[in-house]
Amino acid sequence: MKKRLKIDLYIARITAIALLVITGISAMGGGAVLVIDPTGRLLGFDSLTLADTFFPDFRIPGLVLLVLIGVLNMFVAGLTVNKAKSYPTLILLQGCILTGWILIQLYLLPQTHFLQLIFGSIGIMLMLLGSLLGSRRAL
To answer: What is the average pLDDT value for the chain, to the nearest integer?
Structure first.
């Protein structure tokens, strides 16, 4: 039974690392482009996308995406690879941040995009994986 639990935890940890890295790289790329071109045109965004928000352009959302989602996901992935003491909690928190980011987008923006479903699902999976790894690690 213990051998099965170790395998399950290994799979959960590797899955979390993969999701963190995929999300981190995507967010760093997208965030950097939004900082470089705050109009959003390089990513195909319409200038009216932010019309009903308090953002004059995409620079601040780009910085948030770059740092809170991109850089922090990569940092947490590194800590998870090295099995830092708090890595399950950090995975859970990154899942919360990503899910919150998507929920804020759904609230503020007039249109939706299939990537919101994908990254929202990844955020929920990270929360579940972090919870699983944290609860099983305590055993």
So the answer is: 93
Local structure of 60: helix, strand or coil: helix
Task: Pull the structure tokens for residue 25.
Answer: 């790289």
Is the distance from CB of 98 to CB of 116 less than 8 angstroms? no
pTM score, whole prediction = 0.92
The distance in angstroms from the start CA to the end CA of the chain is: 13
In contact, 82 and 44? CB cutoff 8 Å: no
Residues 6+ apart with CB under 8 A from 64: 31, 101
Find, among 55, 52, 66, the residue nearest to 24 by Cα.
Answer: 66
Token pair 């213990």 in the structure block, residue: 2
Distance in angstroms (rounded) separating the CA atoms of residues 39 and 76: 30
**What is the tens place of the pLDDT at every residue in 78-111?**
999 999 999 999 999 999 999 999 999 999 988 8
Given a contact cutoff of 8 angstroms between Cβ atoms, the answer to whether 126 and 95 are in contact is yes
Q: How far is CA 18 from CA 15, 25, 38, 115, 138, in A?
A: 5, 11, 29, 17, 23
